Queue: 3 jobs
Job 1
Amino acid sequence: MSRELKIAPSILAADFAILGKQIKKAEEGGAKYLHLDVMDGRFVPNFTFGAPVFKSLRKVSGMFFDCHLMVERPLDFIAPCKDAGVDSITVHYEALGEKTGEVLQFIKSEGLSAGLSISPDTEADAIAPFIKDADMILIMSVYPGFGGQKFIEGSLDKIARVREMTKEFDTDIEVDGGIGVKNIKKVVDAGANVIVAGSAVFGAEDIKKAVEDLRAAAGEKI
Ligand code: DX5
Ligand code: ZN
């Protein structure tokens, strides 16, 4: 089965002084998702942005807002992000443990798409009980916290394993960290269909072209 490819530029690498303009360019290049990395300085050693920024962006963009919560207390962030207009919320298994299933169900009961993420040191099989509750599985291919890190090659086997585990469900597989034109094809070939790219998009001179180049490198006809 082949699911539709979606490029999800991560605004972590954008120029926040001209954020609205930059995301328009990414959208013109064919990005369907906008990846929003929320960090609380506790779950990860970095701090970013949250609902007030998403509310402003919502007014200028029709993209699917894909919110990635790298926080210790994900439940506190669901209502504000929903009110700001995000379309999907992804939580980390490492932050929730046994509560993962109920939090995913809560996100869905709020009318949002629910994602479940695992960090590089977590085995794919740890989330087996929660696959049925997730619309998307997000495999971190770097340690969460910062953009611009190197892709961890072992993620490819994990993507393939998650693809196998999700085959009876309609689950999207997203991969996040260290992806660019040189390795996007192998990530897609391993089974992923939602591809996060921060520095490869917003670090480029021409943002629209950077998204088009990623789509082409992934094998999409442009
Ligand atoms: C890392 C974030 C990523 C990051 C990706 O914790 O979750 O979304 O912005 O950035 P690049 O594509 O530069 O690795
Ligand atoms: Zn992310």
Job 2
Amino acid sequence: MNIQENISLKEYNTFGIDVNAKRFVSITSVYQLQQLLKEEKNIFLISGGSNMLLTKDIEILVVHIDIKGISIDRENQDSIHLTVNAGENWHEFVLWCVSQNYGGLENLSLIPGNVGTCPIQNIGAYGVEVKDTITKVEAVEIETGKLVSLAAEECQFGYRNSIFKNKAKGKYVLTSVSFQLTKNNHKLNTSYGAIASELTLKGITNPTIKDISNVVIAIRQSKLPDPKKIGNSGSFFKNPVISREHFEKLQKKYPNIPSYVISDAEIKVPAGWLIEQSGFKGKRFGAYGVHEKQALVLVNYGSAKGNEIYELAQKIQYTIKNTFDIDLEIEVNIIK
Ligand code: EPU
């Protein structure tokens, strides 16, 4: 185990924020992690760094989870059970599944980050959430160094939510995720508007999982900035859920307000629309701003400071509250 000193974390977070790690170590096995935890419990975890906004140098030990490997647990004619180690890149894993004709993750193509963090916020896009395919999560308990296993039901998955953002926050290092995927009779999900229209545009009537993955990649590339070119963390805010009564009031004033019905009493409103209506879309303030094609995404054009982006986020929250009486919740972890 090689503990390095004074390492820039710029390459380790998709926002590309340049902060210093006083001490930094990459971990490549569960055993190594357990050994480390015997010595150090006050640690700062980083994996794909795709859901965090760093606003200051990190004084405690930064532990980069880089445990690789995919194993097949069991399979039959129709399905396969896989366990994937936390440090595998998410999109590369999805592409590999598509190439093997393992179905279930194709709608989640091109999401930045690593496999080990996908359960924390229950990543979701284009009508699919990762919880639909997860069977189990393995993690090392920081306090005891014990390897524990949580069945999907125990992870308390919800929209952009899980036990790892609540009761279990800060308690575990996720080390692997197990999935059940289909080998035949894939359950294709083309319900999301843009997927169906893109497929039609391409003249595809009987899509394969590869077609869906390709279409999702094209849609994402057309709307979302590539973190390798423009730093970002995807959706900065969650889509807020408001009461039907509140929604109907807003609808009178804004007849075009988009919405998704959650239940009789609750309606989800896209945060991107609210932010666009408030005039922030495409606004640039020096080295940071709001993405021009998707207002839900805050961006770092190069040398932005985490605090500058956080202040912009708070300004947006304040404006949305004043204009729509809606509390926008930040989805990204702000490291203060
Ligand atoms: N919209 C606007 N202006 C914008 C952005 C969106 O008016 O700048 C409107 C669109 O016209 C559409 C609605 O908002 O009517 C929904 O937009 P979109 O389909 O782009 O999805 P979203 O609700 O903005 C969510 C996820 C994305 C995910 C897409 C597709 C959240 C917080 N975000 O965005 O997730 O890719 O749906 O499923 O739920 C991510 O988490 O990093 C992410 C990109």
Job 3
Amino acid sequence: MAGEEAIKLAARIIAKAKRIIAFTGAGISVESGIAPFRGKGGLWEKYNPEEYAHINTFRENPEKSWIMLTEMLELIKKAKPNPAHLALAKLEKIGKLRCIITQNIDNLHQKAGNTSVIDFHGNTSSLVCLECSRKYKLDDFSLEKIPPRCECMGLLKPDVVFFGEPIPVEALYRSQEEASKCDLMLVIGTSAVVQPAASLLGIAKRAGATVIEINPEPTPITGIVSDFIIEGKAGEVLPRIVEEVEKIRIR
Ligand code: NAD
């Protein structure tokens, strides 16, 4: 569907929907300067994720993982929410967004002002001790000496899901429940191939929800799980949609 026509249709669907959730991926943060880890220029071109971001490597050779992590955390620390994150914050503020389920670990939805965010793969804003589970705020911690250690001398790891680790139970159950009860899911900036995150789309669809994608390119779920795609950058499309929703609301 052509851009403006699709944006206006999405706004009308949002205005009518009663329980809206957003499901976001790496693409929504591209305009904040964080490249997707896969593909050209991404972090995974330099570091093989199955190796550097695998929990076994982290336990056996934490210095090696921390070399990649220091670079990743530096990149994330510098990033600021872009117009797409801010548009979702506005949607929550006007009572049209129940929650965001994000695969991202960059904390940008929270920085933008969203208060209901499920960090499906965890969040880099804190570190967790592998021995005693104590958590520390990343900002309160010096990373001059790697690997950083807890007061109990246990290894500290960013509080995110590594390869070989399960999804935190609470995030998984809450996400499945939200997906099964929504009547509209906005799927933004994700290739929808990473499991089990991508299974949430099927849950929403089977429960009867409308699924709208916002992505510059079609994905494997376009027209199969999603009802339609708005082809464009999230930072351009989302502010336009929210603008249209607001026009409908004041009419
Ligand atoms: P992905 O890399 O598989 O796919 C990114 C998608 O975003 C693609 O479909 C691409 O077409 C789209 N895209 C690119 N630019 C866009 C834009 N401006 N607006 C909208 N869409 C755009 O990402 P994924 O599906 O999220 O899976 C990657 C995994 O890696 C995730 O599970 C996540 O945990 C992790 N990751 C996180 C971050 C982050 O926190 N910012 C960054 C990279 C990877």
